[in-house]
Design goal:
3-stranded parallel β-sheet; alpha/beta; binds guanine; Rossmann fold; 11 strands
Length: 294
């Protein structure tokens, strides 16, 4: 098998940022700086890293962002009150509450409180509903980023069989919907596998494109795929390593085992991860534009 095409989210995100500069300039002429409020509850180390990566990019592009770091013991009512304040603050065009939240807080209550017009994650039921009927407002960042990678590398899903492994509201469910929509580059036949699927391998073996979003390190290997398929690896798993950090990041797909069997694959890191952040920036700019121009 010839060398696989490495689908670099790092490269694609650089193109996205280039295209966003013009939109940022246009907003700036109207005295508008896109702003994002980030709410981080508790001390989850992975969430802290994600939030820092997100806010670093906002600062790099001179966009406005502020992180509200809250104690993990915060009462639900207090958190909802903060979100209502952020909904009414014109400096913020987008609001992101980093998930997961501590167990005593009902995530649905929190998501439902975010104004759908500021819901740059696309998690609010109104936005999830709009996506499911093919009329999206905000598309969740990771699935949107995956579609951009496929578009950039001209991987057309029309008529293909896409197998999604995972059904979360953050990735699995929305990417299943997006890939099945009757839109340019999509129109795929889609199977969603999950913890209730008796034989996941039976599906991955017949997939043209596999999106794996389980959070299980090296879940997918070469015994589970059809030669020449495309693999989109959404997993970002920390595993112990004897480097200076003490850990390294690996995906849900066993890259080394798969790379000679596939036609294309996203690496971890440098694949889907950078696209999630780029799409958050894009959605926040979109929110600011909608606020100004509509
Ligand atoms: N946790 C993991 N991914 C995400 C995401 O895209 N948005 C939010 N808010 N939390 C997450």
């Amino acid at each position: 098998m010839k060398e696989p095409l490495i689908l670099s989210g790092k490269d694609v995100s650089a193109h996205v940022y280039d295209s966003l500069l013009e939109r940022i300039k246009k907003l700036s002429k109207k005295k508008c700086t896109p702003g994002l409020a980030v709410v981080l509850v508790g001390e989850n180390p992975a969430s802290q890293v994600y939030v820092r990566s997100k806010t670093r990019i906002f600062k790099k592009f001179n966009l406005f962002t502020k992180t509200y770091q809250l104690e993990s013991s915060i009462k639900s009512e207090e958190l909802l009150l903060l979100i209502e304040k952020l909904n009414n603050n014109p400096l913020y065009h987008g609001i992101l509450v980093q998930l997961p939240l501590p167990k005593h807080i009902n995530s649905s209550d929190v998501i439902n409180t975010i104004s759908p017009k500021k819901d740059v994650d696309g998690f609010h039921p109104e936005n999830a509903g709009l996506l499911s009927i093919g009329k999206p407002r905000f598309i969740p960042c990771t699935p949107k980023g995956i579609m951009k990678i496929l578009e950039f590398y001209r991987i057309n899903l029309d008529g293909k069989h896409v197998v999604v492994v995972g059904r979360s509201n953050i990735v699995g469910r929305p990417i299943s919907i997006l890939t099945s929509l009757k839109t340019k580059g999509a129109n795929a036949t889609v199977t969603t596998c999950h913890s209730g699927t008796p034989n996941i391998k039976g599906f991955t073996l017949i997939a043209d494109v596999i999106v794996v979003a389980l959070g299980v390190p090296n879940f997918l290997d070469s015994s589970m795929i059809k030669k020449g398929c495309t693999i989109i690896d959404v997993g970002i798993n920390r595993v112990n390593s004897n480097n200076e950090k003490g850990y390294k990041l690996i995906g849900d797909a066993n890259f080394e085992d798969l790379k000679n069997e596939v036609s294309s694959i996203t690496p971890v890191p440098g694949g889907v991860g950078p696209m999630t952040i780029a799409m958050l920036v894009e959605n926040t700019i979109e929110a600011a534009e909608n606020n100004l121009f509509i």
